[in-house]
Amino acid sequence: GSVTSFVVQYMKINWDLFGELALGIFSAIDAGSLLLMHFTTNIWACYAGYLIFKACYMLLITIATFQIAVNLSMERYALMFGFNNFVALVIQTILTVVVVDSRGLKLDIVTQFLIYGSYFAIIAGIFLIRSICLLVSSKCK
User: Fold this and answer.
1) Model pTM?
2) Which residues 6+ apart lie within 8 Å of 66 measured at CB?
């Protein structure tokens, strides 16, 4: 995860144009690895899926953080990233209570992989649709 995050700084990519496409692709890879862990019974495939998920997730966070930071002034970093972390923790807590907790659905671990894989697939779809719209609009200019 840290190696992939480190490599991002050396990539010569127009992040304004292709950033959301990268987020969509890596979200789709995350969804695929989580769904692999849901549908397989092979422990080695699950380990491979976890390694792929973790590496892509760290890269996804790095790209998303960069996309946000590029448009911020230095004075707003703490406020924005503090607020982002707060919202992320609220969403994570709600999702955990609904999916895992006995007050919620109390789903088994295999079904949780399906839920989280579907969550990443929806996020990937949103990013991919948005990136296609951006690419098409940039080509029309």
Assistant:
1) 0.85
2) 8, 15, 19
